[in-house]
């Protein structure tokens, strides 16, 4: 969908001057398209950069009532604020009415759901490996939990992304267009090498049993769902739960937060910091190690 020429100019600006990644541009375009459509009904004939703060507040409240999360609303606000700043600096409006206004302080990150070690072990033990199809599904589970990959990242893996010399896997198509390299644990690497014996030297790492096409995110989710049912785990355990378990168990072993952020492909420490909630007393214990004020 082609937007207003000024909006399209802003998108070109953040692409060419701001050097925003393609997926970020798609995200911004979607937010601005949503806002444009909403205000075409609320304030027909009025451009976004001519609206008042009150207009945006009513829009955000309507989106919140429709079920949008706080983080989603904050994203919309950030994207629209960027457009208004561009319009103000280019003389198309008197001021940026969203300047200094933020919803970030209202965002409370929920504690991520994760498995304990016994549940993770139980899940993996129920994944057999007697044939190629079972080995494929077992390896998906191992990469989700053992390397903390996202569902889409598992789908996009190619055989060539496995570095056998360094025992690493390259995540080329990652969220936010942030490629990263993840070390492969010894146990996972052994099974990965065995799995690779059945594949060629190129192409998708995971293919469907029928038609040999690259697996989809739904295929991976179905694999996790079946494994969870076999293991008799509680409802609500998903592929994302396995990724959260990876980070939580690393945190529990005292791995540095910055290292976990790098392995997870997070953009900011705030994303990784959410895992501190599952470790009661960890921040307090870290402060106590300073022993400030004690005599030697």
Please name the defining characteristics of this protein:
mainly alpha; disordered C terminus; elongated; 13 helices; 296 residues; hpI Integrase, Chain A; single chain
Helix and strand layout, with pairings?
Elements: H1 5-16, H2 22-42, H3 53-65, H4 70-89, H5 117-125, H6 132-146, H7 151-155, E1 162-163, E2 168-171, E3 180-183, H8 186-196, H9 217-231, H10 239-252, H11 257-264, H12 269-273, H13 282-288
Antiparallel strand pairs: 1-2, 2-3
Helix pairs in contact: 1-2, 2-4, 5-9, 6-8, 6-10
In short:
The chain has 296 residues and is mainly alpha-helical. The chain has helices at residues 5-16, 22-42, 53-65, 70-89, 117-125, 132-146, 151-155, 186-196, 217-231, 239-252, 257-264, 269-273, 282-288; strands spanning 162-163, 168-171, 180-183. Strands 1-2-3 form a three-stranded antiparallel sheet, with no helix packed on it.
Radius of gyration: 23 Å
* CATH architectural label of the largest domain: Orthogonal Bundle
Mean pLDDT: 85
Task: Indicate the proportion of strand residues.
Answer: under 5%
